[in-house]
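WARN retry 2 of 3 for item q-0093 after timeout on previous attempt; input resubmitted unchanged.
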Amino acid sequence: MDQLLSSFRVNVPQGVFIKDPETSDLGKKIIEKGILLIHELGFDAFTFKKLGGAIGSNESSIYRYFENKHKLLLYLTSWYWAWIEYQLVMETHAINNALDKVLKAVQVVTREVENDTNYTHFNIVLLHKIMIEESSKSFLNRAVDEENELGLFISYKRVHERIKNLIQAANPSYEFPASLASSLLTGTLKQFYFKNHFPSLTSCSDQVCPGDFYIHLIHKTLA
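OK item q-0093 returned
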């Protein structure tokens, strides 16, 4: 496990980019300003032309990194889930009790995020807001099956697989570990969204976070 932790990196599937933005200052600026603009404008109003103006570069320079803005959103969502996977590995590896391990994983997935000094060009707080507001647009499209076959959702699926395995270890007789894991991952973002926009649809509030609900739900389900 120590070897795994030392070699673990936040990796994004190569198919979502043309040129890895992590390999140049311009690429990192595209990511940094892209997060800011998508958060400010919303994904629908966001364009590469506006991003080019924000980074002081031609729109064509962005197309050297990403085929279109959909692929940029896929990059951001993939990076977020890869970063979450890193947090899961780091914070659960030393826990021996299987149920406690699941509950710690729930806490990692559902908590409010903080910026990570290891990735200064990623405003993770704003990226989390984008995940809440916009991430469903990365897969709710007609190309989803083709993109899935290309492995473009592998970061999300790795997080799901880890949580599913933790659920199975905590209660091998539980019949629906894959469904519970995916409900946790997608439902957490929806609970944040409902809290912000449709408060009558959720019990979450400024005093009750989605993590409180899911820890209660999963503990009752598996214990």
